[in-house]
Specification:
With 260 residues, the protein is an all-alpha fold. It has 2 domains: 2-160, Helix Hairpins, CATH 1.10.287; 203-241. Helices cover 83% and strands 0% of the residues. The longest helix has 74 residues, at 81-154. The protein is rod-shaped and about 175 Å long. The relative contact order is 0.05.
Length: 260
């Protein structure tokens, strides 16, 4: 089972390696970094919003504290010490809230600064990765194109290999058909293969053709002898050559020629 699992993982890894495109992987990683950067920026915006809300609350509390202080002064001026004491008590409670909010504001401001710095650093990394990604993609595309061109020139690519095999098969079939046609022509000429077209010669005509062919040779031989002897060519032999294709009364006798 372990061996089967290892074989399966090896084959799966090989299939994934063939299917993997580095350019797509780089684009996917870049998109993930952009998503992370967007989340950090949203975090900075959320912290800044919370900080701004605290600042508004602090401003309102400070206004109320100042109002209570004015009310206490007026109460003392009118001889109402009890009202002045109540105003100052409320102001003291507000001051405690202001102190708490100021602490939270400082904390949020620190977090905002950290997130802002982190976003800036991440932005720089994303920009650097984008530049590197485009460089790698361009280099990979150029290498891929160069490899394909080289394979096309050398004929080792899959497409060119298929074309080469198709050409070889076509040449083999053509040579086979030519050889077959030549063999059939030779068999028909020798008479070993009957012509089924209905135009085959009979045996008498074949014998006549053979005799007429021999007569033509004899005529040519007599003409050459006459030329060598310096005399005229035998007229009977020459005239007889025109009738060499017709059957003679005595087909077994050879034609007679006048001796010079």
């Amino acid at each position: 089972m372990k061996r089967m699992g290892m074989i399966f993982r090896a084959k799966a890894n090989k299939a994934l390696d063939r299917a993997e495109d580095p350019r797509e992987t780089l684009d996917y990683s870049y998109n993930k970094q952009l998503e992370l950067l967007q989340k950090v920026r949203r975090g900075v915006a959320d912290v800044a919003t919370s900080r701004k809300r605290l600042e508004l609350q602090l401003s309102q509390l400070q206004k109320q504290s100042g109002k209570l202080e004015d009310q206490g002064r007026k109460a003392l001026a009118l001889g109402r010490e009890d009202l002045a004491r109540e105003a100052l008590s409320r102001r003291a409670a507000l001051q405690q809230q202001v102190t708490d909010l100021e602490t939270q504001h400082e904390t949020l401001q620190g977090e905002e600064e950290k997130l802002t710095l982190a976003a800036q650093r991440l932005q720089a990394k994303v920009d650097a990765f984008r530049t590197k990604k485009e460089t790698i993609k361009a280099t990979y595309t150029a290498a891929q194109a160069q490899t394909r061109i080289g394979e096309a020139f050398s004929g080792i690519s899959e497409e060119m290999g298929d074309v080469g095999m198709a050409i070889e098969r076509a040449e083999d079939k053509t040579a086979q058909l030519q050889a077959r046609a030549g063999a059939i022509d030779e068999l028909l000429a020798s008479g070993a293969l009957d012509d089924q077209s209905g135009m085959a010669k009979d045996d008498i005509q074949a014998e006549l053709d053979r005799l007429s062919g021999g007569t033509d040779v004899e005529l040519e031989l007599q003409r050459m002898k006459a030329e060598l002897a310096g005399g005229p060519a035998p007229q009977q032999a020459i005239e007889g050559g025109g009738q060499s294709e017709q059957p003679q009364q005595q087909p077994q006798d050879t034609p007679r020629f006048d001796k010079q």
